[in-house]
Specification:
The protein has 14 helices and 16 strands. By secondary structure, it is α/β, with parallel strands linked by helices.
């Protein structure tokens, strides 16, 4: 984890707690941190180390991950450990470099001296693998810390971002499409603990559409941890909008209802922001005028992580985080129900509030809020 400042320890503690929860299902591991590195050590041979390591690749807050082996703080022992532990890596690589981080400054050799000695030993043991100081295929890292030395090979890139909850809490509007799971992921990556909110319009949207969103939440739980999906009954609101409001304002008014209900849920769960998958100019309801009207009247900030993304970039992110295949399943969500033929692209707030006067907004919102279903989900599914 890479952080600066006096509050670093609080971030480390959050990351440790998140790691501890994540690896618990793979056996008994000890988790602790020293000098901005989190150490996860198996406590028995029955621990599923590959499973834990694979799971931690999705952990927000970790910049990189390594599977390392501990050894005696002796340069000869370090070299022998590197030969044994990295033999398979050397068999595949054509070039290597040794780099040493000497956190324990009392160690009798400098970092350069350790690297030179270990590098010489490895060069003798694996002559087919050339030394390359500029662009090696295999980076051998030696870390000399207070208690022990560690040896490992190439690092695996971590999920990055900040530990869960370190930036607060937000609710995120989660439809069954491509965009909203990505915006939820990106918001969570910056340290927000997310409560996803889905608007469900049965029978216009099927139970399969709801199952699709539950599956998307399960996939996101790989990164976000255990979460509670809030499913809001939205049928009556959409029917009333279709019945009582001008057709061209239907989408904007629908989104305004969603925003207000999401804010009420945010207040209930202690969240400080609303996250949406909106993007500037992607569809008619996402013009700058439409976005302004949609968020008018909310007291919480609306975060739009995808605001400048194009569809290709969003789709690439969806594929990377594993939500794309589920998002493209052909089950409609409520955003595609009652879609106007010619939606207003430059709505004015006065016209919209005038159209909404035909609705009993307070009652409709209160009923939907009261009927919200809560589904607790982790990376295995509903729990």
């Amino acid at each position: 984890m890479v952080l600066k400042g006096g509050n670093r320890r609080s971030f480390e503690m959050r990351l440790e707690a998140a790691v501890r929860r994540r690896v618990a299902q793979y056996g008994g591991f000890s988790v602790g941190s020293k000098q901005s590195v989190v150490f996860v050590e198996p406590q028995s041979e029955t621990c599923d180390v590959p499973g834990a390591f694979g799971s931690l690749r999705g952990q927000f807050g970790a910049a990189s991950l390594n599977r390392a082996v501990e050894c005696e703080k002796d340069v000869s022992a370090i070299a022998e450990t590197a030969k044994t532990y990295l033999a398979d890596d050397f068999a595949r690589a054509k070039s290597f470099k040794v780099e040493t981080k000497r956190a324990d400054k009392r160690f009798p050799m400098t970092s350069v001296e350790v690297s030179q000695y270990v590098g010489g030993e490895l060069n003798e043991a694996f002559p087919q693998c050339a030394v390359n100081m500029r662009n090696p295929e295999l980076m051998v890292l030696v870390e000399i810390r207070e208690d022990s030395a560690f040896v490992h090979g190439n690092a695996v890139r971590g999920a990055g971002g900040l530990p869960p909850g370190s930036a607060g809490r937000a609710v995120s509007l989660l439809s069954g499409g491509i965009d909203s799971p990505v915006s939820t992921y990106l918001a969570a990556r910056r340290g927000l603990r997310i409560t996803p909110v889905h608007f469900f319009s049965f029978p216009y949207t099927s139970e399969r559409a709801k199952e699709k969103v539950i599956e998307l939440t399960r996939i996101l739980a790989r990164y976000c941890g255990v979460t509670t999906l809030e499913v809001v009954p939205f049928t009556r609101i959409q029917e009333e909008i279709a019945r009582g409001c001008p057709e061209e304002f239907g989408t904007i008014i629908t989104r305004r209802f969603m925003a207000e209900i999401a804010e009420k849920i945010a207040f209930r769960v202690g969240a400080s922001a609303v996250v949406t998958g909106e993007n500037l100019g992607q569809v008619a309801s996402q013009t700058i005028e439409s976005l302004a009207v949609t968020g008018a009247g909310l007291s919480l900030p609306v975060l739009r992580p995808l605001i400048t993304f194009d569809k290709r970039e969003i789709t690439e992110w969806a594929e990377r985080i594993g939500t794309l295949k589920t998002s493209i399943l052909p089950y409609e969500d409520c955003c595609t129900v009652f879609t106007p033929r010619r939606p207003s692209t430059k709505p004015r707030l006065a016209r919209i509030t005038e159209a909404e006067a035909a609705l009993d907004r307070e009652t409709l919102i209160a009923e939907a809020f009261a009927g919200t279903e809560k589904i607790k989900i982790d990376e295995t599914g509903i729990i």
